[in-house]
Specification:
Layout: H1 13-31, E1 33-34, E2 37-38, E3 43-44, E4 47-49, E5 53-55, E6 67-68, H2 69-74, E7 78-87, E8 93-102, H3 114-131, E9 139-144, H4 154-162, E10 164-165, E11 168-169, E12 171-177, E13 185-186, H5 197-204, H6 211-219, E14 231-235, H7 237-248
Parallel strand pairs: 9-12, 12-14
Antiparallel strand pairs: 1-2, 3-6, 4-5, 7-8, 10-11, 13-14
Helix pairs in contact: 1-7, 3-4, 6-7
């Protein structure tokens, strides 16, 4: 994750992904704010894996594995100042300084212990499901930039897919981002034409997109066919943004 997307030298994958995750968390906080009260519609776990698989939260949440969205909202590690373009009231845009909450920081390491990371996710999932047998099934968004260095993740992936609530099976979506310049594959319906065995392995442990997720994909400008899997290979920055939007938008509660 220390390299750039598709050979680019100006955009490190780790920095971009951390930014997208922080923006996603901020968006979830806003969705759950009703009448100035943050309602715990979501519980969030973020696992980072390089040298080891561990909680990726920083600051007061460091080391915590499953956090209600209200606690996430109250405990950013810090607030950064960002420039944002806003309408000037005369048809143009003006730059404005805004405060942006940061919960995770970018990190990169040479190893990719995917089995360890998915096993940690399985443990969190099992604990959650033992206490919440009903409701929207858990969604796991897995992003990687390389093949597993600690074994074949298929068995653990299948275990994640087999768990669930009374509303359905858990959802596991996989997004691979590459440092190589290669054609991207987004939300295919079969593994025909995938470039290698690694791509086919990730496809095999990716859930089919339920209808609500297909509609979310359309809202982000991605057309997906019936039977499409929540799977992206050789994704670029746009793919990453859409992956997180598609993966979180359908669970929005009004």
């Amino acid at each position: 994750m220390a390299d750039g997307f598709g050979g680019s030298e100006g955009l490190r994958k780790s920095e971009f992904v951390a930014d997208v995750v922080n923006k996603t968390l901020h968006d979830l906080v806003i969705r759950c704010t009703k009448a100035e009260e943050i309602r715990n519609y979501y519980y969030i776990a973020i696992i980072g894996y390089g040298g080891s698989a561990q909680s990726a939260f920083s600051g007061a949440l460091a080391g915590k594995t499953l956090v209600p969205i209200g606690e996430v909202a109250d405990n950013p590690a810090r607030l950064d100042t960002r420039a944002k373009k806003v309408p000037d009231g005369a048809g143009g845009l003006v730059e404005q300084q805004v405060r942006f909450p940061i919960w995770i920081d970018p990190g990169a390491s040479g190893a990719t212990p995917m089995c360890s990371a998915l096993s940690k996710a399985r443990g969190i999932l099992e604990q959650w499901l033992s206490e919440h047998k009903n409701g929207f099934p858990p969604t796991i968004l897995h992003l990687t930039d390389g093949e597993s260095t600690d074994g074949d993740p298929t068995a653990i992936g299948k275990q994640l897919l087999s768990a669930g609530t009374s509303d359905g099976s858990s959802l596991l979506f996989n997004c691979h981002v590459s440092s190589q310049r290669a054609a991207k594959v987004e939300y295919p319906t079969s593994d025909t034409g995938l470039p290698d065995d690694f791509a086919k392995t990730l496809f095999g442990i990716s859930s089919r997109l339920p209808e609500s997720f297909r509609k979310a994909a359309e809202q982000t400008g991605v057309n997906v066919a019936e039977g499409a899997r929540g799977f992206v290979f050789n994704g670029d920055p746009t793919s990453v943004v859409q992956f997180f939007e598609i993966g979180t938008r359908p669970a929005n509660l009004r």
